[in-house]
Amino acid sequence: MQASRRDEPCALSSTGAGCDLVTVPARQGLEAVDILRRGAGEAVGPVLHDDGGDTLGFVVPAGTAAAWDLPGSTCTETDGRGLRLAPEPPVEGSDWLVPPAEADPATDPAVLRRALGEAARLIEAADNCC
Description:
alpha+beta, 5-stranded antiparallel beta sheet
């Protein structure tokens, strides 16, 4: 099973220490969430969206940012700064698409990378369709 690692969870505290955040355009992120939720055994961690609807942020395990290189996305080390995994969104002007209480501790970066790649291909095919 390639789900987020429950045995090696992101250290979710009230400060959010121990997690990184992968940010992608909202359209690609929404497709990726759908892909992850349809996947057999592939779980999704908490996901943020901004109220302007421009971006989605996936909570991933700490250390992901050091090796993240997927074009069209960014991965930021939070070091507990500005990311609280609580019922309230951690940043003003954002909201939880997938709240922490309804999610795995974090999305597995390899699984997220595949889902984002598939989402990009689906979007490109739809845009070039007719």
